[in-house]
Design brief:
11 helices, mainly alpha
């Protein structure tokens, strides 16, 4: 029963990993740009949640949509101010530009909020859910359920809506999309906005049960890269599957071997899978 509870917690955590990774894989699939600032977008979402609660006593239903809206605007601004100018340059220039953006956001947070760890009160999403003898934190259950729904929704949006078709058309062939009347710049800006909004929502949800600090994005972006690579670059449903797998492996490893070894097991599994299937679980060869 304890192992089942650990696996259930890992699935909920994995759903959050999938949500924050879905934006990262969308950006790569459309533009072949690796966004090293993605973890810092999550960090901003966490600070929005913290300060909205601290200053206005707003709850999850208030600060989560606000984080999504603020990060969407930030994502669009980052695209037009930075990414549009470097994406046609060498890969090294793209990497350094997003890495520099990550450092800028991180040290701006140090300047604005200090290096002290901050947490939201446990009573914000308090209580424990008991399902069939399995006890799950209400905050983690809420975060995992919302993250899973949004990740599945993004996958459905890409496959079944007009804007999703236009995003996929630009990712397949930018020139052909222009000939069909699609404006690639606008679609790529939307993609950056959606990716940043997903990161903001993930950050706001994570803040309900995790500490907030300017460096929290460092560890989260590493996990996001593992999830994206494992699922296959450009595949949102691959990110969902890989996120759930990583969450379960991480939780079970911490239970069996101790928290110190959870990342070792995850990275060992990651290398082993890519050794056999370099394109990831659901990526294209």
């Amino acid at each position: 029963m304890v192992l089942i509870q650990v696996i259930a917690g890992g699935l909920l955590l994995g759903a959050v990993y999938a949500l924050l990774s879905s934006g990262l894989t969308l950006i790569w699939g459309m533009m072949n740009v690796v966004n090293f600032a993605h973890g810092d977008f999550v960090m901003i979402g966490m600070y929005i949640a913290y300060w909205v609660y601290t200053l206005a006593h707003g709850g999850v239903l208030f600060f989560t949509p606000l984080a999504a809206a603020v990060l969407y605007v930030l994502g669009v601004l980052v695209y037009f101010a930075l990414i549009r100018h470097v994406m046609r340059g060498p890969m090294l220039g793209q990497i350094l530009s997003t890495f520099g953006l990550a450092l800028f956001l991180r040290y701006a947070a140090f300047w604005a909020f200090s290096a002290n760890f901050k947490t939201l009160p446990d009573t914000l999403v308090g209580g424990t859910l008991v399902l069939g003898g399995i006890r799950i934190s209400a905050a983690e259950a809420l975060a995992g359920t919302v993250a899973l729904a949004l990740t599945v929704g993004m996958h459905a949006m890409l496959l079944r809506t007009s804007i999703g078709s236009r995003l996929l058309a630009v990712s397949e062939d930018r020139t052909a999309a222009m000939l069909m009347g699609i404006r690639p710049d606008r679609m790529q800006a939307v993609a950056w906005g959606l990716a940043a909004a997903n990161a903001g929502i993930a950050g706001a949800l994570i803040a309900t049960f995790y500490y907030v600090s300017p460096t929290v994005g460092e560890s989260l972006v590493l996990i996001a890269f593992v999830v994206v690579c494992l699922g296959g670059f450009g595949s949102v449903h691959g990110a969902l599957a890989a996120g759930l797998i990583v969450g379960v492996v991480q939780s079970v490893s911490a239970y069996w071997f101790g928290p110190v070894y959870e990342d070792i097991v995850v990275y060992a599994m990651f290398v082993a899978v890519l050794w056999i299937r370099p394109q990831g679980l659901l990526g294209r060869a």
